[in-house]
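Sequence, structure tokens passed on for absentees:
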Amino acid sequence: MNPTSAYQALTEILTCAEVALGKGDTEAAAVAMQSGAELCARLESADLIVTPSEMAALKDRFDRCGVELERLTRELQSDSARGENLRRGVASYEAQR
């Protein structure tokens, strides 16, 4: 694998992860991110590097994945808090019956 095809492969993997996170599909995102990590390890062991401009583009894609992950985390925490409030409300209602 040459550095250009490595860059393209990483870009595709990160795009898949970003799209999956945007849809809330954490399983698909985890698979994509694991695939990206494995590719990075193979590139490192082969001493292949990407250009600084490609690295900047990859960092931007990583950052966008991070933003999507943070958004999804906030949504999950909000859902969890709503569930906890509902549980407390039901328990309070049943206690008053």
